[in-house]
Every structure is written in C-alpha cells, then in structure tokens.
Amino acid sequence: MNVTTILNETITSVKGAQFAGIVGTDGLGVAMAYHPATAELDLDIELAELELAELASRATAAAARIGAGFVRDLVIETDVLLMLAIQIMPGYYGVLGVLSEMANLGKARFALQAMVERLRTEL
Q1: Which of 12, 24, 39, 96 could form a disulfide with 112 if both were Cys (CB 3.0 to 4.6 A apart)?
Q2: Distance separating alpha carbons of residues 52 and 123, to the nearest angstrom
Q3: Tens digit of pLDDT for each residue in 40-64?
Q4: Which of 113, 70, 71, 121 is nearest to 94 (CA)?
C-alpha cells in the first residue's frame, strides 16, 4: 500500500478531518493529503503543513535542551482546528488536522496512531 492511500484512508476515517500527512523536522513536508472540502475553508492548509513541521522541530529541540528525550506527540487545539502530530521516526511526524467543532481528541489520536503504525511499515 502506498503512503497517499494511507493518508487518504485516515482522512476518510475521521469525522471532520481536513488533512493528514508526513512532515520532517527540517521544515519540509514529505507527503500530504487533503479533504476535498478543505478548499472551501478560509484556511491556508498548505501553510499549516510547514508550521507543523516547524513546531515539531522546535519542540524536539526544546526537549533535547532540557534533557526530556524525544517528542513523541504534539496536540494543538485552536478555535478552528485540532492539529496532532505523532513521531514516525526521529525527524519525521505523522500529522492530522480535524475541524475543532467536529473533533474528538481520543478518536483523532487513535486514528493518527494507526496511520503512523501503517506508515512505519511502509517506510
């Protein structure tokens, strides 16, 4: 199974999911899939990909500086989006963005963890 299929299946499985992907802590997106309705939102989802990569990078650096080990996951909740990131391997995170009004944190984390496990076997 390819990465794009895994990302799209994750979006389909989570109510309100707008994007799913892989970002690197080097600031570059590796792969990203978007829900078709995302274009109707007044959000720069492509910028979200870069910003999540930057946040993962900064969190990783901060954890290293204080001796806290690897950053395994991040959760960012805003008025519009719930954004989650889970480490796939050092330097790479699986990310998921879900509309806050529809988000269920537990289900979103479970779906993202399942996506990351599938990606680990694919990569």
Answers
A1: 96
A2: 20
A3: 777 787 788 888 888 888 998 999 9
A4: 113
The tokens describing 71, both together, are: 């950053």
**DSSP 8-class letter at 108:** H
Neighbours of 73 (CB within 10 A): 16
- The per-residue pLDDT for range 9-35, each reduced to its tens digit, is 999 999 999 999 999 888 766 899 998
**What CATH homologous superfamily does 3-122 map to?**
Dynein light chain 2a, cytoplasmic (3.30.450.30)
- Main-chain dihedrals φ then ψ at residue 87, nearest 5 degrees: -65, 130
Query: pTM here?
Result: 0.90
* Alpha helices (runs of H) in the chain, residue ranges in sequence order: 3-13, 45-66, 105-122
The domain ranges of the chain are 3-122
